[in-house]
Specification:
225 residues; Methane Monooxygenase Hydroxylase, Chain G, domain 1; 6 helices
């Protein structure tokens, strides 16, 4: 095989890898969006649907891992090419965890017994920022845009601040003797899952930054599962 043919073959494989990441990203976004919609509407059928659909994300992750390993073994990429393959491998795991957190939100929704609970009104605002972070991180991956990746990481502070406010509200509610303990506890778990989705969006952005620049992002956040 000539050098030109080898380069075209690698580009084809990398394009397939990128297409799988795009598919994973779209599916993860859909699961998260539907999990929050199910919570907001008290829609238990939609919550169950989210739980079932998470399995497709697990299968896509396996496809990415297989292709990435094969690509490294057959093409032996170096430098920028190797960083792109490794980034795709890592990002697939992060997106799979986004799906897991969306599934956890859906499971908590099935346990909530009061959808008029006041703190529920705060959840969509936190989720909207986290969802936007995931979307922008995927855009940064597709464009190999280091500046957009930095912007995603900066937004994580806003998610953390809203998360802390929500947690304080729920803890104060639990101190009340008339507290709805079941709903408040499930909302605590939901808030934690949303915050972790924001963390995973940050991790995706940091992986993109490294793939695009070969450098670790300044003031890098700790890695969160």
């Amino acid at each position: 095989m000539t050098q030109d043919h080898m380069l075209r073959a690698f580009d084809d494989d990398l394009g397939q890898l990128n297409a799988l990441i795009a598919q994973m990203g779209g599916h993860a976004e859909s699961l998260f969006r539907d999990a929050i919609d199910a919570l907001r509407r008290g829609d238990q059928d939609l919550a169950r649907d989210v739980i079932v659909r998470d399995k497709a994300l697990d299968a896509l992750e396996a496809d990415v891992e297989r292709l990435a390993v094969e690509l490294i073994a057959r093409r032996a990429p170096l430098g920028d090419d190797l960083r792109q393959v490794v980034a795709a491998f890592k990002i697939s795991g992060m997106l799979e965890r986004v799906g897991d957190h969306a599934k956890n939100i859906a499971r908590s929704t099935l346990k909530i017994d009061d959808f008029r609970f006041a703190a529920l009104a705060q959840v969509p605002a936190v989720a909207e920022i986290a969802e936007g972070m995931i979307h922008s991180a995927l855009d940064a991956y597709a464009a190999q845009d280091a500046l957009l990746a930095e912007d995603v990481v900066a937004r994580d502070d806003e998610v953390d601040a809203l998360y802390r406010d929500l947690i304080r509200h729920l803890i104060n509610h639990l101190s009340d003797q008339s507290a709805n303990v079941i709903t408040a506890t499930e909302l605590l778990l939901i808030a934690r899952n949303i915050e972790r989705i924001g963390d995973n969006a940050t991790n995706v952005a940091e992986a993109v930054y490294y793939a695009a620049t070969g450098a670790i992002m300044p003031d890098r956040h700790k890695f969160i599962d």
